[in-house]
Amino acid sequence: MPNTRARRAGRPGPRRHTRRDLVVLGVLLGIPILLDLALIWGPTLASVGLSFTTWDGIGDIQWAGLKNYDNLFTNYPQFWPAVRHNLLWLVFLGLLAAPFGLLLAVLIDRGVRFSRFYQSTLYMPVVLSLAVVGFIAQLILSRDQGAVNAVIGGRNPTDWLGNPGLNIWMVLLAACWRHTGYVMILYLAGLKSVDTGLKEAAALDGAGERQTFFRVVLPTLRPVNVIVGVITVIESLRAFDIVYAINKGRNGLELLSVLVTDNIIGEASRIGFGSAIAVVLLLVSLGFIVTYLVQELRGERQ
To answer: Where is the ABC transmembrane type-1 domain (predicted)?
Structure first.
């Protein structure tokens, strides 16, 4: 007993924070919190409040109630096409770019020849911004001087970016070209971390390559699937650069982000109305975020 008490007495107690420690801790935590409030939550709450007003940015702010939302849903013809285009972005990136990126990752992970070259080449578009991708799309798909029409030839060149029935699909292909490389790298990192013992055990049980992938490998990639899903949603909802670089998001390329920009900083300066569109975009984003968090909490409990 005396030895035990002596050991307990010799143990150092919990270290007390000095005033300097508290100051450093307050600065390290306070500055990021203040920046988050000032740059994210402050403008967000301001947009929610301004969405119920009419304001041109100079005069007095006047309360409008739900008038902006009523005009948005009933008297603004660009709104519903923009909603459809954002959903089309989500479906196209989720059902085409993400699976194709997974396929490329599986092929490269198997060790095909020149895999390093393919990996670098396919990832290269990721380092480009969507605005640069838009300029590249103009060089390739322009009606008069584009590379595609120059190769096809003909007296009546196709207006790939000016035709409202075609330009959205061309832009989606360009966006998928960039998004596929990002998804490929994420899945490639996930495949490298899969335990080879699981594959060997499945092979001993008589499972083929396809069964091993879908029943063993793919379930272990669940965290990567979640990350890819979140990134795909973010990319589809924040899409702006590429369509604005091509034709300022008009003539068949309308998106909610473009409508927000046109109304807030455009010639109309309808800040209240533009804030209402931003709130709608925020609510759509929150719907996906809440669904993701609920699924993650359920997965942790199970």
So the answer is: 83-294
Residue 61 burial class via C-beta count within 10 angstroms: exposed 0-12, middle 13-18, buried 19 and up: middle
Please state, in angstroms and rounded to a whole number, the distance separating the CA atoms of residues 39 and 33.
10
65: left (phi over 0), alpha (psi -120 to 50) or beta: left
Residues 6+ apart with CB under 8 A from 23: none
- pLDDT per position as a tens digit, 248-280: 888 888 899 899 888 888 666 788 888 999 999
Q: How does pLDDT run across 168-185, given as a tens digit for each residue? A: 999 999 899 889 989 999
- DSSP-derived secondary structure for 209-235: HHHHIIIIIHHHTHHHHHHHHHHHHHH
Q: Return the bridge partners of 53, or none.
A: 63
The sign of the dihedral angle between the CA atoms of 263, 271, 45, 78 is: negative
CA distances from 90 to 21, 209, 213, 230, 267 (A): 47, 30, 26, 11, 30
pLDDT band for position 100 (50/70/90)? very high
pTM summary value: 0.80
C-alpha dihedral over 40, 244, 260, 277, to 10 degrees? -100
Q: What is the dihedral angle through the alpha carbons of 59, 63, 65, 71, rounded to the nearest 10 degrees?
A: -20
User: Which residues sit opposite 63 in a β-bridge?
Assistant: 53
Query: Quick one: pLDDT at residue 23?
Result: 80
The token pair that represents 97 in the structure block: 């770019």
Query: What is the residue type of 127?
Result: V
Query: Residue 292 and residue 196: Cα distance in Å, rounded?
Result: 29
Q: Averaged over 221-240, what is the pLDDT?
A: 86
φ, ψ for residue 53, nearest 5 deg: -130, 170
Q: Give the C-alpha separation, 168 to 236, whole Å.
A: 13
Could you write out the three-class secondary structure of 52-93? CEECCCCCCCEECCCHHHHHHHHCCCCHHHHHHHHHHHHHHH
